[in-house]
Amino acid sequence: MGNCWFSSSSSAEDPTPTTTGHLSTVPSSISQSISNATSTSVGSTISRNSQFSERSGDETCPDGQILPAANLRIFSYLELKSATRNFRSDTVLGEGGFGKVYKGWLEERAPAKSGKTTVIAVKKLNSESLQGFEEWQSEVNFLGRLSHPNLVKLLGYCWEEKELLLIYEFMQKGSLENHLFGRGSVVQPLPWDIRLKVAIGAARGLAFLHTSEKQVIYRDFKASNILLDGSFTAKISDFGLAKFGPSESQSHVTTRVMGTYGYAAPEYVATGHLYVKSDVYGFGVVLVEILTGLRALDTNRPSGKHNLVEWVKPYLSDKRKLKGIMDPRLEGKYPAKAAFRISQLALKCIESEHKNRPSMKLVVETLERIESVNEHIREPRIRSTHSTHPMAHRQGQAPLHHRSPLHPRSDGNQNYQQSPRMR
Ligand SMILES: Nc1ncnc2c1ncn2[C@@H]1O[C@H](COP(=O)(O)OP(=O)(O)OP(=O)(O)O)[C@@H](O)[C@H]1O
Ligand SMILES: [Mg+2]
Questions:
Q1: Where does ATP bind (predicted)?
Q2: Of 147, 241, 247, 285, whose Cβ has the fewest other Cβ atoms within 10 Å?
Q3: For residue 239, what pLDDT is reported?
């Protein structure tokens, strides 16, 4: 995976305050709400462009690049208020630890684009958010400079008094999390081919970060941070916890443990030692979620089954057992060989010893090979009504919901829990 890291005097590690950005001083009201998180050691090179400037990048360097300086538009609170219809509740796309995310419509005023409407996603800091300023700053400094087809585009930001907002390109299909675990008629289960496409896209995004001259460890890889555009191209979002990788003489970075339970690598949770391969563990967890349609962590499951990886590990290494844990929403329409190869890959990614995990470059190559084989998907055989197989369908009737202990009922009032964050 090539990349075009520019050797710039304005290194992202250089904490020099800018003449234009606000990032060197934190308003006391905001700083009070910042948790005593470790420094993300990023400086700011934000230029205060009042015009929306197109980022060169994707066109000239399809493998991605790291811009010498963030090229972000500074939005006024008023224009975001107007774009989101006064942050109206029916424009809410989702909510995370930082705050709510709204859909917005931006009327372009620049002469070249006059009359054009740009659809955006606006993430607004909730005053009670624990994630706060440091993550906002990290997002601006990392994502503002990263450009790759599998990383979401940060268009700009707003900082006015206590208001902190981030403005992104709108991702039409929402998050992978919604598709895998969302319920209701609006959520369509993802077919096999799309799952594979999403896994490859997300893997390419992570590989780009890891193979940059200045390695970036993402630290919060999970299904809710994988966003999907209109054609299901996966783009990684949320760089609030990203960190530069270790210097050449070191194998890891030592940090306060932050991230999301269920996805965070065991060595990191146990010691605070963060390796590039800690991200590979998170990727492996997402692969298991893609195969099974089950959440990395769900305390609504019976005890002993809360942690997906701990629970299903023995099922992943056996072709027959794997069949029993595959997502019933695939209705058996997946190539068994490819699914098994992905489960083998997932097992390598979730190895407890970080050194034994593959690099993301190797993960991308493996997934691409699996995709290129393009095995014929056989329609599942219709079994008798007495079948005990989890995929059993009754002929002429709607598919039965799979209610094995692996896939507990999801049509009741169960509140599926999102994996909690660590801080
Ligand atoms: N650019 C975007 N386009 C479309 N929808 C988005 C965009 N960014 C976020 N969303 C939606 O908003 C939801 C919340 O995102 P957010 O990143 O704030 O929280 P999260 O990832 O669920 O949790 P966390 O705070 O732990 O990262 C996402 O799951 C997604 O559905
Ligand atoms: Mg997120």
A1: 124
A2: 247
A3: 93
Specify which of 28-32, 243-247, 401-405, 407-411 reaches the highest per-range mean pLDDT.
243-247
Indicate if 220 belongs to the active site: yes
Is the model's pLDDT at 13 over the cut of 60?
Answer: no
Q: Which of 152, 169, 186 is the last residue of a domain?
A: 169
Indicate which ligand has the atom closest to the C-alpha of 421: 1
Domain that holds residue 28: 23-169
Is the residue at 4 inside a domain? no
Q: Encode 279-293: b = buried (16+ Cβ within 10 Å), e = exposed.
A: bbbbbbbbbbbbbbb
Question: Is any ligand 1 atom within 6 A of the Cβ of residue 121?
Answer: yes
Please tell me the predicted confidence (pLDDT) of residue 249: 78
**Does the CB atom of residue 307 touch ligand 1 within 6 A?**
no
pTM for this entry: 0.79
- Per the DSSP assignment, residues forming a β-bridge with 66 are 5, 146
CATH of residue 41's domain is 3.30.200.20
In a domain? residue 337: yes
Per-residue confidence (pLDDT) for residue 402, from 0 to 100: 30
Highest mean pLDDT among 209-218, 234-243, 340-349: 340-349
The finding on whether 225 has its CB within 6 A of some atom of ligand 1 is yes
- Contact in structure between 8 and 394 (CB atoms under 8 Å): no
Beta-bridge partners for 93: none
Report which ligand 1 atom has the smallest distance to the Cα of 222: 21
Ligand nearest to the backbone CA of 224? 1
Q: Say if CB 227 and CB 171 are below 8 A apart.
A: yes
Residue range 178-216, pLDDT digits in tens:
999 987 767 788 999 999 999 999 999 999 999 988 899
Pocket test of ligand 1: the residue of 80, 172, 175 to mutate, having most ligand atoms within 8 Å of its CB, is: 175
The arithmetic mean of pLDDT across residues 6-12, rounded, is: 30
47-59 core/surface letters (b: 16 or more CB in 10 A; e: else)? beeeebeebebee
Ligand 1 neighbourhood includes 171 CB (under 6 angstroms): yes
Contacts 24+ apart (CB under 8 A), 302-307: 302/405, 302/408, 305/405, 307/262
Give the atom of ligand 1 at the shortest distance from the alpha carbon of 171.
3
Q: Does the pLDDT of residue 384 top 70, yes or no?
A: no
The number of distinct structural domains making up the chain is 2
* pLDDT, tens digit (0-9, with 9 covering 90-100), for 400-421: 233 333 444 333 333 444 667 7
In-domain check, residue 119: yes
Find the ligand nearest to 94 CA: 1
Distance 206 CA to ligand 1 centre (A): 18
With the most atoms of ligand 1 within 8 angstroms of its CB, the residue from 80, 84, 93, 173 to mutate is 93
6: in domain:
no
Q: Do residues 111 and 65 share a domain?
A: yes
Binding-site residues, in ranges, read: 124
Annotated active-site residue in 220, 238, 279, 298? 220
